[in-house]
Design a protein that fits this description.
This protein is α/β, with parallel strands linked by helices. It is built from twelve helices and 15 strands. The two termini are about 35 Å apart.
Length: about 375
């Protein structure tokens, strides 16, 4: 947070300058609604005396929304606290995302891309912001892309020796003509239960739990509607644990939390619609297991070259206590019931301080990138 500057002799000290924070939300993905909820939650939690919040909306079609459309995307409580902006090369209530565009004093100093899933969390928006020369919160292009693709992510973790459950990957286009062969192979390699999920999606969108051969073909076909690759994972009887990461080159891990889903597993409805799903923070697990989760979480973050923030998800197998790394999320949800902010609050970092840290880390990483040489 900028320091308050001393006024001239005989005047009172001026208040700290408000940070011009641009919040980018919505997006062309199955997680559009989650992004809107995340944006509204962050906006309503920000101190208006500390942040001048400008919002940029992306419609479900992927088109940049007008300022009027952006305002309508938000609930009234959030809408009254922000300035909706158009994205053009003009002035006024506009945000300039064009490479080389002249920045005005009214432009956001840093962008918070509260986008989940493809076209937002996968490095595409991060690449646009890099080209435009704008600082932003969160992971860069590479980490975002790797963190979104569960196939590439899991292969990277396996290569580094981290504990990943057995899985298979099939191309969506191959599924219709090879269900019989896939059934035999998957039953032999993974057994029941197993989970099918799109490789590049989050919030459990497109995920199916497969209990028997009778469900396999339909589950694969359903998951294949959302991505060109489908990941099929071995299912185990396990507790679901999560750990939050904050930092750039020296990332810190929060305490560990546990998800208690209201349904058979933590699907989209259990995450965002069922009030009976709950979080246990801290997770009631042995101290050595919590330490193992935190160490693996930091290592996973470092492996993808993460920056800013991430939430790392785990399974702890019932009966054996074995810890399995599930996945890393480079832009976790910020809804009122989302785990990331709750984990840091329980670790002693209140929400306003968390936002300040994320903004500072984004500005620091941008300064590092711009200081690098681009030619010999």
């Amino acid at each position: 947070m900028p320091r308050a500057e001393a006024g001239r002799k005989g005047t009172v000290m001026e208040k700290a300058r408000r940070i011009r924070l641009g919040i980018l939300f919505g997006g062309k993905s199955g997680e559009h609604e989650v992004s809107v909820r995340s944006a509204a939650s962050v906006i309503e939690a920000l101190d208006p005396s500390e942040y001048d919040v400008k919002v940029i909306g992306i419609a479900k079609t992927g088109r940049l929304a007008t300022a009027a459309e952006t305002g309508r995307m938000l609930p009234p409580a959030a809408r009254d606290r922000v300035t909706p902006c158009d994205v053009t090369a003009g002035n006024g209530h506009h945000v300039q995302l064009l490479p080389g565009a002249t920045r005005t004093d009214d432009q956001p100093e840093i962008i918070f891309p509260l986008l989940h899933g493809p076209y937002g969390e996968d490095g595409t928006i991060q690449g646009l912001l890099e080209i435009a020369g704008l600082p932003y919160v969160g992971c860069g292009v590479l980490a975002s892309a790797v963190g979104m693709d569960k196939d590439v992510m899991k292969r990277l973790f396996m290569q580094a020796g981290l504990p990943v459950l057995p899985f298979r990957v099939v191309r969506s286009g191959e599924i219709p003509g090879s269900v019989d062969r896939l059934t035999v192979d998957l039953e032999q390699d993974l057994g029941y239960p197993m989970f099918s999920k799109p490789a590049n999606l989050g919030s459990s969108v497109g995920v199916c739990k497969i209990h028997s051969r009778h469900e396999l073909a339909d589950a694969l076909a359903f998951s294949a509607q959302f991505d060109r690759k489908v990941v099929i994972e071995k299912g185990i009887d396990a507790r679901e644990l999560e750990c939050a990461i904050l930092g750039n080159d020296s990332p810190q891990a929060s305490i560990v939390g546990e998800i208690i889903p209201a349904r058979e597993y933590y699907d989209y409805q259990a995450k965002y619609a069922d009030p009976n799903s709950r979080l246990e923070i801290p997770a009631p697990i042995p101290a050595d297991k919590a330490g193992e989760v935190r160490r693996i979480a930091v290592r996973a973050f470092e492996l993808i070259d993460g920056s800013g923030l991430a939430r790392v998800d785990f399974f702890m197998e019932r009966g054996t206590g074995t810890i399995w790394l599930n996945e890393i999320n480079t832009m976790p949800g910020f809804t009122p019931i989302s785990m990331y902010a709750k984990l840091w609050a329980a670790s002693g970092l209140a929400f306003p301080d968390l936002i300040r840290s994320l903004v500072r880390l984004g500005l620091e990483r941008h300064a590092e990138r711009t200081a690098l040489r681009v030619s010999g």
